[in-house]
């Protein structure tokens, strides 16, 4: 078992909730009945359909290795079901430069409608942040259903995602014709080969996180007890380069209106370790017979495929929204983990109401793009680029997908000199748009 799964509950949050007659506790991984009740509370919190017993069995396997925390109210009619939930675990986050930084993933944050406005969410979330600090993790992260909640805890939107709709009758392929080949493979083969290909892409994907085995099995339709898994009709293809080595893969589903009408292809996942693999896989789905459009959710806000077809408007964004939110807890460790695009010295004066990231920090970037940061108590170097900002806004800037100039113009970042935001943007710039291809 992972050490964090049974890490003691945060004493400060425990005491806060106990004053209100509530109990904060971590569930034992062996307590299957307790985990199922927790899952029922989690589903209720997100207004989901009540899971069947078969679904609960699959979900218990999903969360068994995580830190599963709940809040219980012994005075309610059903004292064994928690009134609030949160789940967390350690997971690698890709940062600019390609390193995977160990971070604290937070998920399943719910509070029962019967217990709102009692400070439960604050107690749980601040407790999670203190737990991450105790575990030595410099960043916490989550994907959110509501965008108005997490800024008050120092989280900032750090990577966005887009959904695309491709009109295949207009999107005639004009891109490269790679020398390798696309071929159908079994889902089982991608369960074995896919993770290594995904890892090869991460230097181009700031914002990506580890894909756990249960994610692969679910996405590939390999969980036999998953409801309706057999109905999805998942198709799996891979691209082998000219030397016969796997360099990418795609998962898709097709919904046909009827045998005489074109259907819609849903691109579930497309992972390419090379530009050739990207081109070959996109060309394969765009040129699919009996398909008039492609729905591609959870893609990057910047997709090269729009430049690989004859009609740029045939590749249309149907939505764009925040996806990954970060919370910096250890500023020197976080800043030292990523690479930068411009050498220099940068003084960051960070305000943090919760205290985790507050202080003045000097970031020194070397000519090779490596960075080193430390708290600064004295005067800053005369040529340092100096800005003042909130911890949440530093988190938004961290992956290079948010503009410091925009934050300055919005009044969220204060510059000590007229060009400070521009110079900071130059240093933080990522050649690849931050992107997270999954939920967690």
TrEMBL record:
GO molecular function ontology, one term from the record: aminoglycoside N-acetyltransferase activity
Question: Keyword Transferase, does the record have it?
Answer: yes
Record's CDD domains? NAT_SF (cd04301)
Q: Which GO terms describe its biological process?
A: aminoglycoside antibiotic catabolic process
Tell me the active site.
150 (proton donor), 440 (proton acceptor)
Binding positions for acetyl-CoA? 109-111, 117-122, 145-146
Matching Pfam families: Acetyltransf_17, Acetyltransf_9, SCP2_2
Provide the N-acetyltransferase domain boundaries.
22-176
The UniProt similarity line reads:
Belongs to the acetyltransferase Eis family.
Q: What is this protein called?
A: GNAT family N-acetyltransferase
């Amino acid at each position: 078992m992972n050490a964090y799964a049974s890490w003691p509950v945060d004493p400060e949050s425990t005491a806060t909730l106990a004053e209100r007659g509530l109990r904060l506790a971590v569930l034992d991984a062996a307590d299957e009945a307790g985990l199922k009740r927790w899952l029922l509370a989690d589903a209720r919190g997100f207004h989901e359909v009540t899971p069947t017993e078969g679904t609960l069995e699959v979900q218990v396997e999903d969360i068994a290795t995580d830190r599963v925390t709940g809040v219980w109210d012994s005075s309610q009619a059903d004292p064994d079901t928690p009134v609030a939930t949160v789940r967390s675990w350690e997971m690698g986050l890709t940062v600019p430069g390609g390193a995977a930084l160990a971070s604290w993933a937070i998920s399943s944050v719910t509070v029962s409608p019967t217990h709102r406005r009692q400070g439960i969410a604050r107690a749980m979330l601040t407790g999670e942040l203190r737990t991450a600090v105790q575990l030595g993790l410099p960043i916490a992260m989550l994907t959110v259903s509501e965008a108005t909640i997490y800024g008050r805890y120092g989280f900032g939107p750090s990577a966005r995602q887009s959904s695309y709709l491709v009109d295949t009758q207009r999107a005639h392929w004009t891109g490269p014709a790679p020398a390798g080949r696309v071929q159908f493979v079994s889902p089982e083969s991608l369960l074995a080969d896919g993770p290594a290909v995904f890892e090869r892409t991460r230097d181009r994907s700031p914002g990506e996180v580890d894909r756990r085995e249960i994610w692969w099995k679910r996405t590939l339709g390999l969980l036999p007890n998953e409801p309706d898994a057999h109905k999805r009709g998942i198709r799996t293809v891979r691209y082998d380069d000219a030397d016969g080595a796997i360099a990418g893969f795609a998962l898709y589903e097709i919904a046909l209106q009827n045998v005489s009408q074109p259907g819609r292809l849903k691109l579930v996942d497309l992972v390419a370790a090379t530009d050739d693999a990207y081109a070959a896989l996109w060309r394969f789905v765009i040129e699919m017979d009996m398909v008039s459009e492609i729905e591609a959710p959870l893609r990057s806000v910047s997709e090269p495929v729009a430049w690989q077809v004859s009609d740029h408007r045939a590749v249309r964004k149907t939505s764009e929204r925040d996806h990954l939110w970060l919370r910096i807890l250890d500023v020197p460790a976080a800043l030292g983990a990523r690479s930068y695009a411009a050498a220099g010295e940068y003084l960051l004066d960070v305000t943090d109401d919760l205290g985790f990231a507050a202080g003045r920090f000097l970031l020194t970037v070397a000519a090779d793009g490596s960075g080193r940061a430390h708290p600064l108590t004295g005067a800053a170097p005369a040529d340092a680029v100096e800005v003042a900002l909130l911890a949440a806004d530093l988190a938004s800037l961290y992956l290079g997908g948010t503009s410091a100039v925009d934050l300055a113009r919005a009044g969220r970042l204060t510059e000590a000199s007229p060009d400070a935001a521009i110079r900071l943007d130059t240093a933080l710039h990522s050649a690849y748009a931050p992107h997270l291809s999954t939920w967690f």
